[in-house]
Amino acid sequence: MTMPTLMPPLQWFKCFIVLLCLQTVTLIHGLSNPNPKLVSTPQSQTISRRAWITAATTAIATSTASNVLTPKEANAASFPPPFISEDEMNSGSPERRELLRLISSGSNASVDDIESVISRLDKLDPSAGTGAIVPELDGKWELIYSINAESFTTLLSLPKPIRAKSFQLLGSEAVKTLGEDGRVAQVLQFPFGPSIVLSSGAVPVGGDGTTLEIFPPFRLELAFLGQKVTLVNAGSDSDFRALNARDDDAKAAPRNMYKQRYLETSGKSGDIRISEVVSGDPVVVGTLLIHRRV
């Protein structure tokens, strides 16, 4: 009998790193509004040449995704600061320049310093309180700083050869990846090929031009070598929160609301966007994220 060809050790290592990410993906950008019903059977698509590898991978993912995600104390991002050019650093309002200087300084910047600058930037929002509904929200955005997303940002602190980058896809950029409209995607992209994609529905809250309501279905997919495997498919907030060992109050909490506090509207690379989870799952409420348009 012919034995199946085993995956090379490097490929096993890559898959292992990706699977480690799953236990924190539900905190991606605070949009991981908990709600999936776990999918424990592999899809027809595969990430390798052998179905049994897919089955094993999905089984591990199932186990990992069900690990307990416990609330953390408020903390700033600890991942390495992004490269910010001198031109970026010296453009815009004094508050914007100060924020970028603080972010580029890494651990030298305190949460209080960052929050103080953001509170001043709130009043200078170029979208004038319409960040959730203007066309300029559309795009690919890279996470450059976060507060209260400690579990997730650990993945962005891996050694450079395997360090993930975090992107948020909105509008047409999300359609390119997901193949459907009306959804947003959170992507962890690893330099060696694989990516983790968490997608959900999103719609502006009526009468509020700043806030997006995040809703099911929620899908967690592993993408590698042009193939996708669905690891989690979510139907309700409470189901996913139960999966992550939330208490009854958390399971009963309303959908996540994602407020766009500051949105630069040039539509060009380098635009800054500041957003916050303002209600919903208590584990992620208060998560603040700073993105830069790619």
Query: Major beta sheet, specifics?
Result: 8 strands, antiparallel, barrel
Lateral strand order in the biggest sheet = 2-3-4-5-6-8-9-10
- Total DSSP helices: 9
The number of E-state strands comes to: 10
Give the CA-based shape.
Answer: globular
- Uncertain ranges: 1-74
Query: N-to-C terminal Cα separation, in Å?
Result: 51 Å
- Indicate the percent of residues in helices: 25-40%
Order of helices and strands: HEHHHHEHEHEEEEHHEEE
SS-based class: alpha+beta
Mean pLDDT: 76
What is the oligomer described by this structure?
Answer: single chain
Radius of gyration: 19 Å
Strand content: 25-35%
SSE blueprint:
Layout: H1 9-25, E1 37-38, H2 51-65, H3 86-89, H4 94-104, H5 111-121, E2 139-147, H6 150-153, E3 165-170, H7 172-178, E4 183-189, E5 195-204, E6 211-224, E7 227-234, H8 237-243, H9 248-252, E8 257-263, E9 272-279, E10 288-293
What does this structure look like?
- The protein is an alpha+beta fold and 294 residues long.
- The protein has 9 helices and 10 strands.
- It has helices spanning 9-25, 51-65, 86-89, 94-104, 111-121, 150-153, 172-178, 237-243, 248-252, and strands at 37-38, 139-147, 165-170, 183-189, 195-204, 211-224, 227-234, 257-263, 272-279, 288-293.
- The protein is globular, with a radius of gyration of 19 Å.
- The N and C termini lie far apart (51 Å).
- Residues 1-74 have low confidence and may be disordered.
